[in-house]
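Incident log, entry 3
Record: UbiA prenyltransferase family (403 residues)
Problem: checksum mismatch between cached and fresh output.
Input:
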Amino acid sequence: MNSVQIGSALKPSSFSASPLSAVCSSNGNVEVSRVHVRKIISLEHSVTKIGRLITLNGNKYITDIQRHQRTKTKFVANAASEFSENVHESECFHPKTHQKSFGATLNAIYKYARIYTIKGSALSIISVSLLAVQSFKDFTPPFLLGLLQALLGGCLANLYVVGINQLSDIEIDKVNKPYLVLASGELPVKTGILLTSLYAFLGFCLGWRVNSWPLKLGLFLWYAFGTAYSLDVPLLRWKRIPALAATCLWSVQGAIVPILFHLHAQTLIKGRTLLLSKHAIFVSGFMSIYAVVIALFKDVPDVEGDKVNGINSFALKFGQKRVFWICIWLLEMIYGMAILIGLSSTRFWIRLIMVIGHGIFGFILWRNANLVDLESNEAIESFYLFIWMLYYAEYLLVPILRF
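Fresh output:
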């Protein structure tokens, strides 16, 4: 076997159509069992240093070499090498170390938060809190501080819930959602555990310090149901049982946020008696059904991983298409109810907003549902995010629903 240095092997003068061999030693020579070098030449005064691709035990390292330009010459080198197991990579060459940058880590943490759920929680808390306001005089510093506490506490609880769910579902997500940061390895599991523990600690500290019993109770129940839904220990992991899974999501979206956080907002207004208005009851009923829809729909694209891991979801039991259309009809039903309630209002502008607004939501939902390719999980997941957009839009209407 001939011995040549990798530098000389790749010089323009040495290119040939025949294979070359080289030996790796401590002085920088590289053992190459197969080097296939093709030379594509359109010569007019040119010398180019090229990027080379070297395969080491199945791992590809690409070294970019700056190109020194002269006109119209290209060299393409494809080098494939097999090294013996006892040869250290550092003895042969020194590839650039690809350590994850601080920005990349922050991006992974951002994706770990499942930000679309954070948006929903923040918007819902603000909306039900504003529903308690009856005049501009109610916007006092204590009210704004209490709203900030509720907003921070709710977001921390949401971060904890999505975090523990991802930590508990890594193997499932490798099948259903391999793009998630824990399933893909973009974020280390240890980092996920630390972040989720931090969210729990900060949330409990905030809940301990506030004087509002509705907020204390709301945060405690949010953490409790989120843990029961995901944690894989005896008597928990309620997501395996469809009815319990729906109960967990309903408890947050249908009771904790629209009722307890609304009562918390009332405690911040001086002289206000704690009372559930008919508007708050409407929001609770509406969002209870919406929560059931989200609980059912979120499993529609996940039947493959759920089947492998023993999660007996409604979508797995009754079929994706049937559950998909059950969700659509449930949403259309509550939009219809909202229109009827709007028509009964004595205030013209409330009647106008509720009828036209929910009519538009129902029409857009039906139109988009009929465009979904139910054979494509990607299309179903995209539609699931669209349902969240409608969720956001509904909460934008909540503060003015004073019929």
